[in-house]
Structure formats: C-alpha cells, structure tokens
Amino acid sequence: MAEQIEFDQAHQALQEITESLEIGRFVHVRRQLQDMEPEDIAHLLEASPRKSREVLWQLTDPEDYGEILDELTEDVKDSLVSKMAPEVLAEATEGMETDDVAYVLRSLPDDVSREVLSQMDTTERLLVETALSYPEGSAGSIMSTDFITIRGDVDVDVVLRYLRIKGELPEATDALYVIDTENRLIGELPITTLLTTQPDIPIAEVMEDAKEAIDVNMIDSDVASLFERRNWVSAPIIDQERKLVGRITIDDVVDVIREDAEHSMMSLAGMDDDEDTFAPVVKSARKRSIWLAANVLAALAAASVSNMFEATLEQMAAIAVLMTIVPSMGGVAGNQTVALVIRGLALGHIGDSNKRELLMKEALIGVLNGIMWALIIGGIVVAWKGNWLLGGIISAAMLTNLVVAGIAGVSIPILLKKMNIDPALAGGMALTTVTDVIGLTVFLGLATLLI
Amino acid sequence: MAEQIEFDQAHQALQEITESLEIGRFVHVRRQLQDMEPEDIAHLLEASPRKSREVLWQLTDPEDYGEILDELTEDVKDSLVSKMAPEVLAEATEGMETDDVAYVLRSLPDDVSREVLSQMDTTERLLVETALSYPEGSAGSIMSTDFITIRGDVDVDVVLRYLRIKGELPEATDALYVIDTENRLIGELPITTLLTTQPDIPIAEVMEDAKEAIDVNMIDSDVASLFERRNWVSAPIIDQERKLVGRITIDDVVDVIREDAEHSMMSLAGMDDDEDTFAPVVKSARKRSIWLAANVLAALAAASVSNMFEATLEQMAAIAVLMTIVPSMGGVAGNQTVALVIRGLALGHIGDSNKRELLMKEALIGVLNGIMWALIIGGIVVAWKGNWLLGGIISAAMLTNLVVAGIAGVSIPILLKKMNIDPALAGGMALTTVTDVIGLTVFLGLATLLI
C-alpha cells in the first residue's frame, strides 16, 4: 500500500499548508512549495479555496508558473492569470511548449494576450502566433511543433549519430518523422526500431507508412478517439498538402478525453465543465441561474397542465397527492435512456444505421418496466386509497409514460445532435419536460374523464 | 478535412456492412472484415445491434479474436465470449498480453475460465494465473509482465547490442528498468537517453531514480491520476519488497480514465457504466428496474408528504397546481451542486481541509439564486393566480429549498463517500428525495398555516 500512503500524504500536505497559511507561516509554506512538483502545486491550487489560492500563488516560485498554469483547468487558470502582469506572464511562458503557451493565451483578453506576445522573442512569438491561428478544439490547437524529422535516404547509423549530437529529444518522442524535400510526411521511424536495427540499414527500408496521419483541422475529440483505438503515444499532424506541421502527444489527448467525459456528466446536470470547485459565489450563482431559468419554464409547463385540470383536482385531493408519481418515474426512466444514448453518440456507436433498433429496444424496455411498475404502483394506490379506479388510472398513465420515456430518451438526443445542439446540455431537461407534461396529461386527463 | 472523411467512411462502412448482412452477402462482409484493423472491428461490433453482432463475430477471422476482445467493453465482450468454446477462446488468447488475457478471463464463469486456462501452455498459464491473483481494480490487474530489465553496471553500448539481438521491444516501451541481483528496482533508463548518450558510459551514470514506482496494490484510479499528473507513457510496478513485478502502459490508463469518467455520468442517471448500447431488452429492463424501485420509494415519500396536507389541497386546487414547482427547482439546483462535488471528490480536490468552505459557498449560491427565483416565481404566481399570499408562500418555500439544495448537495456526496457508498450512484437520488420532501413540506405546510 505504498502509494496509498503517497496519496494520503498529498491530502495531508494540503491540510498542513492550509493550517500554516491560517497562522501566517508564509516562509514555511514557501519552502514546502519549493519541494513540490509543479503538477502537485497545480493540484493543491485546484483544491484550495480562493483566498488561500491567491496567497499560495504569491508564494510559488515564478519559474514554475508556466508549468503549473498548463496543468490547471480553465476557470482556475483564468482567476490567477487575470491578476498577473503581462511581463511576468511572458516570462512564465518561457520553456513551455508552444501549444501550451497558446492554450494559456487563448483564455486571456485580447489586449493582454497581445501584450504578452510582444514581450516574447521573435521566433517564439511566431510559433505561438501560428498555434493561435488554429481554431480552438482542432488538432492544430493541441499540437506541438517540437519534433524530429529525418530523410529516408540515410542509414540508421547516421540517425544515431545525429541524435547523440542533438543530446535531447522532445518529450514523449516515440518516433521520428521521415519527410521528403518538400516537407511532406512519407513515413515514421519508431525509436524502438532504431534501437533494434543494424546500423547499416537505410531508413527507407525500416520506416513505417504514415498513412493515418492526422489532418490539422480534425476535431480534437476525433483525434482522441483515434489515439484510443490505435494505442498511440504520439502522432504526426499534416496540412492539406500532407506537409508535416506538428505532433500531438498522448498527455494532451488524455486531457481531451478527460474533458469530454466530464463535459457529458457536468452538462447533464446543467453545469459548465470548466467550473472551478471554489469559484466566486456571485459568478457561480449567475452561471447556474441560466439552467434554473430553463427549468422554470419546464416547471411552469407542468403546472399549466395541472391547471387545465383544476376542476378535477378540486373534486378529489387524492389525485393531487398522487399526481407527482407518474412524472417522476417517467423522468428517471427517460434519463437512463438519455445517458445511454449520449454516451453512444459520443463514442460514435449510434448512427443512422442502428437508431431504429435502439428506438425499438428502449420502447420495449419501457413496455416491460411499464407493465411491472403499473402493477406495483396500481396495487399500492388501491391498498392506500382503497380506490380501484384510481389504481387503474395511475397504472395506465405509468405504462404510457414509461414507453414515452424510452422513445423520447432515444429521439431527443439524436434530434438535438442533428440540430447541432449539444445533447448532453439540453437532453436531460428536454426529456424531463416531455415526461412531466405527458405523465401529468395522461394521469389527470384519465382522472377527469373517468372519475 | 482529410480525417473527417476517414470518420465518415467508418460510419459508412457500418451502414454498408449492415446492408450487406441484411441481404445475406456474407462472403463480401467477411472480405471487408479482413481488411479492417481489430480495433475498428471492435468499434463495429459495439455499434451493431445484437443479431448482426453475432453474425459479424462468426464472419471475423478467429486470429483477430484476442485483440478484438481486448478492445470491447465488458457487456459486449461477455455476450460474445459466453457463446465461444473454451478451446477457441484459449487459441484466441495466444499472442495477447497477459493482463489482457486476465481481463477477458475475469468476466467468465469460473468453470469456463478454468477450462480455458487448462488449454494454455504452462508458462502462459502461470503468467495469467499470477495476473488473476491481483484483485480487480488494482495496479496488478492492469499491468503487463512484458518489459525489459538491465543491470546498472554495464555500458550503454552493451545494452544497445543486447537490444539489437533481441530484435523487438514490448509495446509502448519508453524505458528499460534497472534492477539489482535481487530483482529490486533501482532505476529507469528512458530509451531516448539510450539514443542520445555516448556508447561507453555506464548505465548507472545516466539512469533516472525510480522513486515514484507504483505499488502493485494501488487502486487503478490512483494510478491513472499519477499518470495524468506526471505525463507518463509507462511506469514500473513493484511489490512490497520493491521487487519489479510488472509495467503499466498509457493505453490501459486511458481505459481507466474513460471508464471512471463514464462511471460518474452513467451512475448519476442510475445506469451501469458497462451497459451495452444494444443489450438484450429483458436484461436491460431488469437492471434498470432496480433504480426505478429506488425512485418509487422517493416518489412515495413525496406523495406521503402531500398526503399529510390533503385537507389543504382539498380546500384550494391552485395549491396542487403549483406544488410541483418548488421541488423541481430544488432538485435541479441541488443536482448542479452534486455534480460539482462528485467531480471534485473523484479528482481529489475535496477533503476535510476545504469542505467547510465549499458548504458555505454552495449555501450562499442557494441564498442568491433563492432570492432571485423567489421573486420571479412569486411574481408569476401573483400575476397568474391573483393571490398575494400564495405568491409569498411560494417565494418563502423557494428560498428555503434552494438553500437546502446547496447544503444537501455538498453534504450528501461527502457523507456517502465516508460511508463507502459510491456518491455518483446514490447522490442524485438521495438529493432529489431531500429537495422533494423539504420543498413540499415547506410549501404545503406554510399554505396550511396561512391560508
């Protein structure tokens, strides 16, 4: 359990540092921070309430700023960067990879970002400006321009000597790229091949085809899914003319995978996936209010349905008591389907060829569970209220609503995706509105007709 | 947009294959499958309804079975493996990595798994049995035993010659492991160092400390979080005596990250994260029913609250019409907080040192949004129903419930975690029950007292 201890230590470090800050032992904290890896400081900052976060940032060695910023999530990064002077920021970006600098600059206001750029030396600035020219969320925006190219007509031995002179390879280098005179990518040479091949063999004989090179405009989620399927560690990036323009490494891909997966979960609950756990209260309240506003409309839609049946409700209060059960069950069942479909859409498992089967399957599950819960709830209502008719009405409404939930659970996310609306963001709320309205309409409608 | 095309082609391939299956062009499909990479066949199987999936599996070259099985999610894998003869399965596992074989065997019934093991040759069987001896979800269960060890007292040149004789390196090898005579890990030699160092330098001089080696019992999510923070491609695994027992590579870590992130999203909706998109209807219906059963209890709890106020409901039907609004808003606001806290707990950002701040922050957000929505909803009710008292009552209930939602949204997941119950699984349901019951009690209670 050695590593479990390591993790407990990390939590303990946080506790200790928090306590030291409270009693003002700043020198002590500064020393502790110096002993920590930048990525661990980043973790500490994410886990710190806002006030301690700012103090910790002041106590951190500015030399680590760049690496730490790169590890932080958007909102936390923004909160720190917004208070830094452009020249400090420019200094912090020295030694960072170009794509990481671009990532940090992207979230700054335009004038600050321009100010920071103007403080860099020309080569660096040109590289960063190129990185910034690719749209956010494209392969170009997460690639680095740090890679090693070789020519196909030399021997392994020449490459080995070249690398020894070079002395250091870019991070996560697992292959060298073979290019022609026009800078077009023609192959890849895994460095393991370099190690296991006799020195006198020409590169062209041992290199691998680079047939699956990634286009610079590919969407980052698609890049991640390719990496995941192919088990890549890094991959070359080419432009429309097959010219080699960059390289994406697995660590950036892991960030994309993590963000995409978190996005679905947070969006379903109506949250921003960048949201800082310790964001300022007013800012959070405002952001979340948008989602509550959408729900007010949904809740008012449901209330309007009940309002149409006010006379029935007046006649028999038991109906009012029971009327929340059917919408509630429909919402839960429908959201199960929505979660399944959102995951399937994200993984590319659902398309035109199989959506019909999926709809049938989820509708059938609705029928099966509908029958079961219609009987159970019907039985409970008969036992509780001693009214067979009311039991029958709630059973019929339950069965209908669970089938509707299955059908809507498949259709709504697929339709939203077709309309280019993020299904994770709007799917759950739209589904709940449908199951609320249908559930109430059927239950109260039948009650009005039959009682 | 070269790669967008590649992806569209993948979807088109699925469509084509589905159509070919429908009209019985099996030979054609078999040929298409032969041209595909195992991981792409796995993707095709995941995206196929059950009937076509079985046919596709029959048409796939059995030589690819092992690699395909390794890429499939649990439920899909189970559905295929359950119909394979043990000897076919034993053959399929040849050439797979040990951890992957163990992963496949773990999901089989004990007798089938024993049967498959008995068909393997002795060396292979022993390796797989060792892998199976580590508990699921531990570092040991995802590590491979395929790695290269060297001694610290030799020169770089000796290692280079050794590797050339060996001819091939295990997948994703980015470092060789330096061990002592007792097989204890003393260092790592990145293969990039091997390429950039002069041949006559001893290994001990250029190797890196392996101070952060992972213990074989570490939980896989913690392994993933270390990989993510340290940007590792692979890492050595040691036992309690620091003896080197295995190696974990980034591709297995990516699977863990993906599964963990999906787990939160699917669990919040009451779904199993292994659930096959095209699972059999009866099996799915049964699995989901458990969650619906939990919700029945929650819905009945809410109905019992309304039942206590039946007299009030009888008196004024408008109260029944409006009574769903307050619980609905509380549930949505509370689930925002729950999502934030579950993510924070999963990332290790929330602990004893900062939970008080978090509680304060979320309660304050509840106050701010509570005031805002109390005014808006109160206003709407006054305008709609022309009843100032009813407007005041719903406002008071709304404010109370949004503050409760913030407090419960923080407390419930943290308490569940303390009780060793998965907060992602039970958090949302528990929260909704609290906000339903409190929301109804305050609204109907005030109405009973004041009207």
Automatic annotation (TrEMBL), chains A, B:
<dbReference type="InterPro" id="IPR006667">
    <property type="entry name" value="SLC41_membr_dom"/>
</dbReference>
<protein>
    <recommendedName>
        <fullName>Magnesium transporter MgtE</fullName>
    </recommendedName>
</protein>
<dbReference type="InterPro" id="IPR000644">
    <property type="entry name" value="CBS_dom"/>
</dbReference>
<dbReference type="Pfam" id="PF03448">
    <property type="entry name" value="MgtE_N"/>
</dbReference>
<keyword id="KW-0812">Transmembrane</keyword>
<dbReference type="InterPro" id="IPR046342">
    <property type="entry name" value="CBS_dom_sf"/>
</dbReference>
<feature type="transmembrane region" description="Helical">
    <location>
        <begin position="390"/>
        <end position="416"/>
    </location>
</feature>
<dbReference type="InterPro" id="IPR038076">
    <property type="entry name" value="MgtE_N_sf"/>
</dbReference>
<comment type="similarity">
    <text>Belongs to the SLC41A transporter family.</text>
</comment>
<keyword id="KW-1133">Transmembrane helix</keyword>
<keyword id="KW-0472">Membrane</keyword>
<keyword id="KW-0813">Transport</keyword>
<keyword id="KW-1003">Cell membrane</keyword>
<feature type="domain" description="CBS">
    <location>
        <begin position="207"/>
        <end position="265"/>
    </location>
</feature>
<dbReference type="Pfam" id="PF00571">
    <property type="entry name" value="CBS"/>
</dbReference>
<dbReference type="InterPro" id="IPR036739">
    <property type="entry name" value="SLC41_membr_dom_sf"/>
</dbReference>
<dbReference type="InterPro" id="IPR006668">
    <property type="entry name" value="Mg_transptr_MgtE_intracell_dom"/>
</dbReference>
<dbReference type="GO" id="GO:0046872">
    <property type="term" value="F:metal ion binding"/>
</dbReference>
<comment type="subunit">
    <text>Homodimer.</text>
</comment>
<dbReference type="GO" id="GO:0015095">
    <property type="term" value="F:magnesium ion transmembrane transporter activity"/>
</dbReference>
<feature type="transmembrane region" description="Helical">
    <location>
        <begin position="363"/>
        <end position="384"/>
    </location>
</feature>
<feature type="transmembrane region" description="Helical">
    <location>
        <begin position="315"/>
        <end position="342"/>
    </location>
</feature>
<keyword id="KW-0479">Metal-binding</keyword>
<keyword id="KW-0460">Magnesium</keyword>
<keyword id="KW-0129">CBS domain</keyword>
<feature type="domain" description="CBS">
    <location>
        <begin position="143"/>
        <end position="205"/>
    </location>
</feature>
<dbReference type="InterPro" id="IPR006669">
    <property type="entry name" value="MgtE_transporter"/>
</dbReference>
<dbReference type="Pfam" id="PF01769">
    <property type="entry name" value="MgtE"/>
</dbReference>
<comment type="function">
    <text>Acts as a magnesium transporter.</text>
</comment>
<dbReference type="GO" id="GO:0005886">
    <property type="term" value="C:plasma membrane"/>
</dbReference>
<feature type="transmembrane region" description="Helical">
    <location>
        <begin position="428"/>
        <end position="450"/>
    </location>
</feature>
<feature type="transmembrane region" description="Helical">
    <location>
        <begin position="290"/>
        <end position="309"/>
    </location>
</feature>
